[in-house]
Structures are given as structure tokens and as C-alpha cells.
């Protein structure tokens, strides 16, 4: 004799301790099992794409900072690459190396927060998160030394970077890089082989390979499903073809693989920074670009491998000082379209964990 | 209430309960008030100790603004909570909502009636001491369900349902682990159990200690079994609609239960108030704080389990181990009652290691859907 | 027989947390202790040099938010006299584009970061409120000569052991 039960709808509302921003999910539950999911976004929409059409190309750089605010350097870099492609501006060597160093440091910082918040969602009561934030503070001190801010840097300019590094930057960076691999090992000891973490995340929220490719997922989400695709190797931008690094790839595509891929990417970023520090040439850091320049009529798409995925800027110009169309290809939004398929069939507690393992930033989703 | 011989020292005085002037009721009155006061002060000390300790595990100082080393922090929290407005959900069940914190708090406090702080310094030296404790501590789960139901909130209801399933499942291994100790001591009375420990029972019953520790953590809803108040998922579960003094009662009830569990572990496994140099009362406190340190050390490191994993752990892992422990202890008590401890300790520890390793072979991941 | 996952992972994690008990906390007790900020900090105020400013309004044109308002009139020696120079620091995003754009080095970012006010109108700074003084010191963002005179930043990597 089966019990007659009915499914009920629960609303994990915009204000919630663990939804990484203002994101709303309406789950239909049958007991504890999720049978349907409806995401609601748009609570953080600010109209950046429209606002950018009324400002010059240089004035748009601070706006791009505020897209994925945990990885501002990458946003700046993607936009500046798109404009340089549109207008055909070249960048001095030293500026290219500085850009790579900043982008990789930013990747480490963003993954630290992503992994820390994921572990916090699993229930480890802030301890791993605080250890990660301690390391992230060291990176933010370095950024503070270079450009004066800790979160929204406004550092890259069209044609290079805005300031050269001060004298004390390289010794501090050297010290940091030497301690970072030791920290990742220590952190592995804390939780990577923890039985409870394995029980909660292994096999949970699997994203199969074909589905990941079909929804154009990118970044660690795609790589953990077994697809070896990284824009730094597949379509190298800036000077990434001069460095030697590997692309960590998962096998199954569950939440544990996504977490593992991010930790390994941090190690590879440390390798890239060490190589860039050795090869850093001298010279100027900003090429001569007019204050208000008119790029030729046309369109350009500049994309990079941001910490969260493939971040792309699509710019259309009509020979005036402001872009005609400014579109952002946000990786978090595209990765989020797989959420429903990953969560259906699992329990309520797993829904939170899988959502945390995709590692999104709501400001990018809503723009 | 007239004290008959004021020249007796406090220690000897406490050791002669039933010959008090005024008789039974004076003894009861003094001890009841004394125990409530001591428990509340110890709970405040526990709150302070946990917050400072968690802070140090997380490379931060912990509270240090209210008073030197933050000692007055629990008092500041209490004052803040008392000053808050008392909100009752409009469509909730008013009387059940009002009664729930009481039903949760009072049984937790009643456990302390049988805990000896020193030899015979106990409110009521029942000869079924430990059975009374197990019985009383299962009453508070009814209060938790009342709280979840009367809040008229889906999250609270889910939290309450989970909690009932968890608490009821873990009572069985809890009781079975205690029986091992009882067999070794030969009595259910708490005082007798402590007196029978010439060497602490943790060495003779390592498996029993492990089972009791985990089952007790699950009973009081602490990490790693705290999915009831999982802030990240359910925004603190069943007590989300409570504020003011009622919330304070839930919060205090959790800490009183932690204190009770620490005290029971000290009595059953660590030798209660026995120790060489210091007065016995101090030894008891030191051991209780040591067990509490272990409890919040576990809290700061380990993620939490999901509800079906919690249930699987209870029924498939702890219950068989508890039965085996009971069986083996029974054999040891009957066949070798006068065995030398130095022989039994290594045998028991070896049995524990073998059983834990055997059961961990059954630990499968992925819910059976994925080959890992 | 190889036994896995019998609790060693949990024990190793707990050993690491225990080691952290003996590390010094890295917290700074604000407001009793303060760290020295970066020499190039883009602090919460702007500082204006009245003598060097010619009223060209390049800063106003390069601001993404449009917070700088400048009103000028013609002077005798064929120069501008700045009648009104107002910055709305409530709207400002402190990106520093105005400081980089100024051709006469007449505008600086501030060094202080504790400039909260109780009313929004007090955040709008006019001519006299923007001048250099003892409390309003400039930072070295885009101004290398000032950067050389400021103290070194305290780094966490030096303090943490």
C-alpha cells in the first residue's frame, strides 16, 4: 500500500546565506528529492550594456571591473583585448608580461574564494574559507601595491597597463609564489581526502560530456566533465603561447571533480607566474594611443579564459568615440543553464552543493 | 534549615546527604538551586570557551571586546536577546509555539539531577541513574517537533522531520554502548560507576567510547550531524521563527545538552572525579572541558552529512558495532571477570581497530550510481 | 588487503586544525591599530591644487560618471578663472581616470579612506573643501614624486608566519 504524498514547492529566495548573491530558485520537492527547478534571475541587473553605449572606450574600463567583481583583472583584460582587436593597437612587451602576471594572480584569488565558499556550503563551518581568505589577502595586498585598490582595479588600459610595478612588487611576489604551493599542499591535507566530503560530493550533480558541450559550458565546469578545452591553449591570446603549463581535466563531471580541477588550476597558475617573472623584460608599459580615438567601422570579439569560464566582449563600432553595441558573453550565465539537469533527482542538500560547485557570480549573470 | 555542626568542612558536609538538618527537603532545595545556578554558569563558560576556541582554530582571536578576553560576551548576548521583540507567526499555533521551548529546555536541565560532581555530591543518587538519563533526554525531541510544526513554515517543518528521524535512530546505539560500561561496573547508578573505575573505562571499552561519542553528537544535533540547524541550507531550520527569550531557551538548551553529554562521557569513560592532586570537583571540571574541546574541534573541521547518510550510518554502521561490542564485553565479563587490565586493554583496542577497518570496507560512494 | 577511508582523512584534517591553534592570529584590532595603506591608494577623497588648475576641464570630460562640475569665466591675461569646481564624491567611483587625465598635475587622489559623513549633501565638495590641508593628504596614484615620500605599505606576507 503506497502512501499518498504530494509534492510541495519551496522557494530558496533571493536572500539566502548560501546563494552567492541574489539568486532565486523555486524547487518542487517530493519528500527530500527534487523533481523540478525553476531559476529566477535579474535581481542585480544594472543595465551595463546600455550604459556603456554612452561612454568612451576608456571610460568603460571601470564598468567592466564591476561585472565579476571577484576577478576584475580578467574582465579588464578581456575588454581591452577586444578594443585592441577592433582598432588594431599593439601593446609593448613589458605590458604583455605584466598582464599575464596579473591575470594569473587573479585566477588564484578567484579560485580561492570559489573553493572556500563551496566548502562552506558543504558545512565545514568557515574554517577552510578563512584559511583561503588569508591567502587571498596576500594577493590583494600585491594588487593594492600596484594600482591602489583591492577589488575594482581599473588597471588595464587600451594599449598596455596604466602603471608600472613599484620596486617592492617583485620581491613580495617571489615570496608569495614560494609559499603558495606549500599552502595548497596543506590545504589538501585538510579536506581533500576527507571521507565526509567525498561522501557528499562524489557522484553528485554529474554533468555529462555531451550536455556540457551542447550548452556551451566553459571553464572548470567544462574541463571537469572530461573535455580538454582551454582558450589559453586552443586560441592563445596575449603571449600565452610562450609559457608551459598543463590543463587539469576531470573525468566524471561531479561536484568533487569541479573542486579538484580548481585546486589543480591554482598550481598551474603558480607555474605560469614563475615563468613570467623570469622572462620579464624592461621597457614602457603603455603605447601611445590618442585620448579619444575613433576605431574604424567594424566589429570584434575578444575572449579570454577567465576564472569562471570563457569571458567574451563583442564590440561593434561606427567610427565614433563610443561603442555602438557592447555585449558581454558572461560565463556564469551560460554555465547556469545546466543547473536544472544537474539537480533533478538529487536531494535538497545536494542542490545547494551543486549550485556552489558551479561557482557563479551573480553580477555577471545579471550584468 | 539549620546546619547541625558548622565545624564540618564543606567536603565532608557534602558527602553526608541524608543526615541533613531539615532532612530530605532541605537537601533537595539547596541542591536544586545550586545545580541550576552551576549549570547556567558552566553553560556561559562553555559558550565563551567555544567561541574563543573556534576563533583560534580559524586564525582569529574570537570575542575580545566585552570585558577582558571577552568573558562578558555571553552576558552581552543574553541581554541582547532579552531585549528583542517576541514575534509569533500569525497563522501558527500559538499555544504550541509558546510551549515548545519549555519542552526542549526542561528535560535537558533535569539530566543534571543524577550527575555527581564529587563522591555522593548529587541531588538524587538514583540506583537507575543512567537509565533515567537516557529516558529523560528523549523527551526533548517532542519539543523540537512542536517548534517546527507551529511555525507555519516549510523550512522549519523539514528541519523538524529530519531531526526526529535522526534522534530516534541514534538512541539505540547510544543505549547499547552504555550497557557495555554498565556490565563492567555492575550497577546503573552513576556514583557506583565512577567508584568502580580503577582504570578509566575508555581504555577497556574503546569501541564503546567511539560509538557513544558519535551517537551523542547526533542526539544533540552538533556537527557533523547538525543538518537540523544547517544555516547554509535551511537558514537555521526549526527555530527560524523564534526570537527573544524563546530563542534564547533553544540556544541554551543546546549548550545544556552539550554540557550534559560531556559530563556523562566523563563519568562513564574517563573516571569522573578521580585524580591525584587537585580536589575532585576540579578534576571533574577539567575533564568536562576537555571533552568539550574535542567536540568543538570536530565541529571546526568536518563538513556535515546529508540526512540519508546520517540514517545509513546509524542503522548500518553504529548499530551492528554496538551489538558486537555488547556481545564481546559480555563474554569478557563472564569468562574472565578477574582478568588483568594490562592484558584486556590491548585486546580490546585490537578488537576496535579490526572492527572499524572491517566496517569501512562497506563505505561506498556515489549512492551506488557511479563506480568510484 | 588495502583498507581505505577508515577515518584517516578526518584525523589528518583535525591535526591541521590543531596546529593552527598555535599560530598567531592575523587580525588587526581596528581602530586601535591601523595598517599603513598602499602608497598608490585611491582613497575616498579628491584633492585639488588651485594654483596649477587652468580650468581646462579635461578631468570632467574623462569622468565616467560625470561627477565633476566646472564653471569658468574669461580672465584678463587670456586665461580661465575657475568660478566653480565641484566634485560629488557620493557618485564618484574612485576609478582615478580624472587624475590620470589632468595635464597639469593639479588633481590628486586622497590618502585617507575614512571619510564617511552623516548627510549626503556633505559629500558634495566645492572649491574650499577640496584643498590640501593637514587632514587631507594626497596619495601617490599617478604622481610618482608624491609616491616617493609616502611610507611603505604593510604586507600580510611579512606579518604572517
Which descriptors apply to this entry?
heterotrimer; A: 367 residues; alpha+beta; Cytochrome-c3 Hydrogenase, chain B; three-stranded antiparallel β-sheet; 15 helices; 8 strands; C: 161 residues; Alpha-Beta Plaits; two-stranded antiparallel ribbon; 5 strands; elongated
Walkthrough of the structure:
The complex is a heterotrimer of chains A (367), B (372) and C (161). Chain A has 367 residues and is of the alpha+beta class. Chain A has a single domain (57-338, 351-366), classed as Orthogonal Bundle (Cytochrome-c3 Hydrogenase, chain B), CATH 1.10.645. Chain A is built from 15 helices and eight strands. Chain A has a three-stranded antiparallel β-sheet. In chain A, strands 6-7-8 form a three-stranded antiparallel β-sheet. In chain A, strand 6 and strand 7 form a beta hairpin. The longest helix of chain A is centred in the N-terminal third of the chain and has 30 residues, at 93-122. Chain A starts with 7 loop residues before the first strand and ends with a helix. In chain A, 53% of the residues are buried. Helices cover 66% and strands 0% of the residues of chain B. Chain B is an all-alpha fold and 372 residues long. The model of chain B is unreliable at 366-372 (pLDDT under 50). Chain B has one domain (89-362). With 161 residues, chain C is an alpha+beta fold. Chain C has helices at residues 8-19, 58-62, 97-101, 144-147, 156-159, and strands spanning 46-48, 68-74, 80-88, 107-109, 124-125. A three-stranded antiparallel β-sheet of chain C has the order 2-3-5. A two-stranded antiparallel ribbon of chain C has the order 1-4. Helix content of chain C is 19%, strand content 15%. Chain C starts with 7 loop residues before the first helix and ends with a helix. Chain C has five helices and five strands, in the order αβαββαββαα. Chains A and C meet through helix 2, helix 5, helix 6 and helix 7 of A and helix 1 and helix 3 of C.
